[in-house]
Fold these 2 entries.
Entry 1:
Amino acid sequence: MKFIIEKAVLLKTLGHVQNIVEKRNTVPVLSNVRIEADSNGISFKATDMDTEITEVIDAKILENGAITAPAHMMYDIVRKLADGAEVELTYPDEKDLLKIASGRSEFSLPTIGVEDFPAISADTLPTNFEMKRDELKDVIDRTQFAASTEETRYYLNGLYIHPKDEGETKVLRIVATDGHRLACVESPLPQGAENMQGVILPRKTVAEIRKLLDDSAAETVKIALSDSKVRFSLEDITLASKLIDGTYPDYERVIPTDNNKILEVGVKSLATAVDRVSVVAERTRAIKVIANKNHVILTTSSPDLGSSAIEEIEAVYDSESLEIGYNFRYLLDILSEIKGDTARFSFKDSSSPSVIHDTSDSSAIYVLMPMRV
Amino acid sequence: MTIRVLPSNLVNQIAAGEVIERPASALKELVENAIDAGAHKIEVSLTGGGKNMLSVTDDGIGMTADELSLAVERHATSKLPDGDLFQINFLGFRGEALPSIGSVAKLSISSRKKGSAEGYKITVEGGKKGAVEPTAISSGTRIEVRDLFYTTPARLKFLKADSSETAQCVDMLQRIALANPHIAFYLYADGRKKLALNDCNGAVPEARRQRVADVMGTEFKENSVPITAQNEFCDISGFVSLPTYHKANSLSEYLFVNNRPVRDKLILGAIKGAYQDMMMSGRYPVCAIFIHVNPRYVDVNVHPTKAEVRFYDNGSVRSLLVGAIRNALSFGSQHSANTGGLEHLLMRQITAETERMKVIPKIGDLLVHDSAREYPHFQRPISTAPAHHRSMPEVNLPQLEREFSVRVADEPSPQTLEQVGELGLAKAQFHNTYIISQTEDSIIIVDQHAAHERITMEHLKQSITKHERIPAQMLLIPEIVDLSALDKENILEYSKTLAELGLVVEEFGASAILVREIPALLGDTDIQKLIKDLAAEISEWGNAYALTDKIHHICATIACHGSVRAGRALNIEEMNRLLRDMEKTEHSGQCNHGRPTYVKVRLVDIEKLFERR
């Protein structure tokens, strides 16, 4: 195998694939990236046995062939090469190693044969649909933060995706929760997803695909699903992953429908005020929101330091006064995903979940459980 | 097969299986008899770890010939005079010890009643009672047990080596001796004196202090604080070690209920709780605790060897004990252990590195001769040192210059001097990590990070208790935790306490609970594990410290990050301030991980080091 490639192109590709590779591995070949040159171009493949990424790029191929070599080391080498340089990869060189040559630099890397490289089998995935790149980016951003990181409830460690009949219209729902707050976003149901089963995408996969979406210029993303695997394809990059094998809780039960005390408040003014008063409550993370007629009072305090803060902002509220505590981090997380000018809070009482959404956009709702302070 | 009543010999052997486990347990029964007989001096002698021969001689009231014959009968005792099992004022009461021992060994008892002219002797061999014969003996009783377990070879097989059985006997006698300071105890093993405890004079507290020092050593005496507490039916006294003085197991926790040595879970649990977050995990305090309860309020008849007791009111005994220990530790909380610190280190250095020690005083000379005020930095005297010092091959000067960054105090302001407490006046900081302070009779070395960490932690803990309840995050999706029925009941019993800590649980079916709220500090946590840990702890120890533990652990982490680090240079005001804060803070003798925050080097020890004493 022998090819010549531009540094920037190689670096970008290696950057994508080396993300998947774990820093330390008990199986040596998992530290390696699989490189293959054939008539389709050069394909780079890496896996951690749960996720697999493949990227195909063009290069000047002098000789076909395939080999695996340490991913992180290759990435570090290429990163440090001069910008604009051309890189030549040769295998086997005279010492039976992978040679990376650029200008006057030359590196030889150990290799492991491709036959040892595991493949996440290329099953046929029965459900196939497409989503706009920006649409997918958007639904991930608006839900990802609410997913749990606590590993014992593994079934909450990801995004739950399923189709939903909303009367006339059918939608695709993306849900995330950690048991304290919940994010639920709807997107038009793509063609081909009508009969899909609900699946849980692991957090790591979601984070990976999110990075790739930023880096890609592709208009659409092809998504293929079975009940245990998912595959995202963006032009030359393919990311395949196992799904979380678990039952997602019946989340709809915790979304309240009878909250009748409505508060409308400017997103920006609320978010900046919360951010300000939260300085004194860094430790407890508790903020008290007091809704009064047409204004909201935010208070925080830290009794040990004797510090406290209070701020009043204008709002539209016409029900009886209500005092409710939140974790301000959770509140800020949600507010930062509301892109419109005004947020609508609906409450029942200070110990029941509150519902928050954008007044100008009903596609996303957030449920936040109060804190007892 | 028909049902029949077992012959008395078998009954005794069965009872012996429960009461007499090993020579040490036979010893315990016999010594307790001697104490109940009002002895002032008890002599124990054993050969072959007590397996071959074990004898107990006392100077108590003794027995008449008739009593002697009765004593070896089952359920015969003089210790329940009123026939009331709830008014037990003696150590024994079951009337089982002598016949049990008699059924598994060759037992001979000689006794002379006080004031009587004749002594008598009776023997029991493998359960067969001999006749009472006259014998020569001074006032008191002598009991000899030979060939223990010769009728039960299986039990004999399970005994350990002679030396280990001897050690167990010594330990047992020490335990008993702790509770009875007015009695002299002697123990001879294979003719060699193993234990000699003279009787201690004076009132109980004085005598007890003396006996504790005799049995547990001066090291314990120096590193312990007395505890005392009373309520209407219970009286606790004793000595507990400082949190920096500890052992790898709980065997050095000597516990007594009404002068009876016990190993009771409730008490062990209370001690564990009292030392919570002051003791390194996996380490145990050393203590001697004496609990006196009106016999009406305690049931000692729950365990054949009386190692466990039941209190009428568990909760109040526990809280009284925890309160007493905590009080004592806060009182002595600025103290950190003396031993194991620099003193030992120096000793080790003297013996192991005599060669290097010859050099080190010379470096010291530099510091002494060139006054500290003239040279605020240690580096300077070294670089201006005479040539022969530079040529010393053992000292790497550049290395030393780099490592010995010493900040030395200027003349302290009168204001600083006014506030000086028992941790003395800060003199210097070296390696940017340790503060040296001087008191009237010692030098104190403070680990600045460990000390500040504890101060921050205590502040945090106070701030948490300032909230009426700990802020709780309600759960959108309540967590269901499956438990055994017993665990479930245990958790629910403590639900009120847990709610104050921010953990709200509800009953959910026969064997599960529903978690509604968790302490907000814990964040996204493993609730299942938390509840199961709590359940395990409640059933084992009868308290729910796991949650406080977890919360304190988080406080400790916050405290650790919020404290001055090792390597941060402090000026002299900052150092003095730290020392004053330590004096005011509870438990400041050890950091949150149980390590000492300072060591004290007494002037006397330094003088010894230089052979001035």
Entry 2:
Amino acid sequence: MTGLKNAKAVENTDDYRNVFVFLEVREGKFLRSALEMIGVGRDIARKVNEKLVCLILGNNISKLADEAVEYGADLVLGAESPDLEEFRTLPYTSIVSDWVLKEKPNIFLIPASRNGRDLASRIAVKCQAGVTADCTELDIEHDTRILSANRPTYGESMLAEILCRKHRPQMATARPGIFKVPEKSRSENPEIRISKVKVDKSLKTKEIIEFRKKEKVDLSAAKIIVSGGLGLGKAEGFKALEKLAKTIGGEVGASRPAADLGWISRDHQVGQTGQTVRPRLYIAAGISGKIQHIMGMKNSENILAINIDPNAEIVTYSDYVIVGDVKDVIPRLQKEIDSYRKEHSGKKESKIASAS
Amino acid sequence: MALEIVVMVKQVPDSQEVVIDPVTMNLNRSLTRNVTNKADENALEAALQLRDEVGGHVTVVSMGPPQAESTMIECLARGADRAILVSDRFFGGADTYPTGLTVASAISKLEKVDVIFAGEESSDSSTGHVGPGVAEFLGMEQATYVSSVKYADGFIIAERELEDGTEVIKMPTPVLLTILLNANVPRRQTLKRKIAATKQGYEVWNLEKLGMPPEWVGVRGSPTIVRKMRPIKEKERAAKRFEIDQIPDLVRELFEIGALKLEEMQ
Ligand SMILES: Cc1cc2nc3c(=O)[nH]c(=O)nc-3n(C[C@H](O)[C@H](O)[C@H](O)COP(=O)(O)OP(=O)(O)OC[C@H]3O[C@@H](n4cnc5c(N)ncnc54)[C@H](O)[C@@H]3O)c2cc1C
Ligand SMILES: Nc1ncnc2c1ncn2[C@@H]1O[C@H](COP(=O)(O)O)[C@@H](O)[C@H]1O
């Protein structure tokens, strides 16, 4: 227990080096956010020539450690125990805080997922450090090695830049789905330190009776998303979107009211209270473009809006706009894509064959 | 066994009416109405249900400026037994660390605490960090993002909503729970209760009562500072317009720029 202690400025910030990232594991695998943390952490570490240190807790983690190394971990700190198989606040806080106090990182990034936030705040308090929540941009100032932690505020209309000048580590949680999954890039002299740990009984107060897994469509990894909103008019409208999505190798998304009405299940919802996505192509059919929806998809590479109203808000967020009724537009789009494919697939295949 | 229950409540600017000062880029507080943080109303309701079932008391604790009075009265009118506003000019400008420290310090002055409730996050700072911070200061077990709470024989059984499913967990008290927005329907404040609540009144505790050094709290006790605020600039997008009959052109362009790929098609 930390007790009632104040946040403590450190005497010499130069004593603090390297970038820690916490990699979230579920059922023995990395969550996508783990790779996102490696990506952003690696960029920051390499900018100032420091080490990327990946933290992994779990039961059998040696494969995960190898994977982290493939992506650029300079050092993996691992803790193994059957008691660490699932995330539990107290043992995780204790182990990670010990690493922080011993290794003295300058920066520590944790995903702003539910378990990530559960953990980050406790570690900050335990280490008497500062933490900035839910960042969407992270950078380091080269000379001072101060973390520039940027987070949206006031209903996503403003970006606040937050600094932690005197306390170490400089902690931040990073919003899932915002940072890119990096290419693999092995570091020169990677080191893996995994220790078997025994979790003290006093930290084993939380018993997980059951985990009911949700059927989930992971839109965050989709390359193409075809989303529908109230403009579809009725549940059947999603049938045509599903067909289109299937043809072009995409997933189906939805606005919140479309999910609220039960036209499609909640796990397809995009936006503030749904998933954050950044596909290569986002098609918004019959979606007006209210800020809560925009928040979840505005970082898509290409955005195509289909709307009967040429002045819908979504238009200013779009690269392409088809003005028209979804009932006409979707079948036509389907037809033209099918015929483009017929016309070109022969050529394309020979090209692939000659390239390989 | 009766339970001594604490609810952490924050007054926030009404997000429907947020007005930003174009010069300072800060919230224009004089033009913005204040309300009780929505998720905290759900936390209070969860606390009241627990008390009504097993007996005990619900104490509301809030750190904030004097105008948080309306939130204090509202919580009493909904059924809280006691309300404490932790208020002092020294507390101003606190980030999550000293906020948690101040609230934890106030809670530590209470005779006994079995369960602490907080909201999943506040609508204005939306960090979700203050609840777990308090649990750490007080050395308590915690469960975040909780949608339902039961109590039996010294144990809390809670459902915790994760991104990919629901965890059912069991923990002994004392424990801190953060409650999801819309996890329940908060009971209404009746006029009769409102009058009684106003009469009953709430306590105001200052820094001296907590007995902490002034440099531990508020802006001086905050490890983080806001360096600047800037409007979020969206990427400029061309909004290139196509009529229905031009869809063939659009399709060609989407393939040419690689937004659609033949090899990904099924
Ligand atoms: C706290 C909070 C959280 C929220 N979270 C989310 C969230 O995560 N995700 C989300 O999406 N929303 C969210 N919302 C709701 C959001 O504010 C909007 O209400 C919602 O995004 C609008 O959905 P829509 O675009 O489908 O419907 P509408 O706003 O009703 O838009 C329908 C659009 O379809 C067009 N249209 C109508 N008929 C046709 C037709 N025949 N052909 C083509 N176009 C047509 C219309 O011109 C219009 O632009 C949230 C709101 C709140 C308060
Ligand atoms: N000033 C405060 N006083 C009392 N409780 C607070 C205060 N700030 C935050 N909380 C509690 O902590 C929760 C999370 O807030 P936040 O970390 O700001 O997102 C809120 O829902 C409240 O329950």
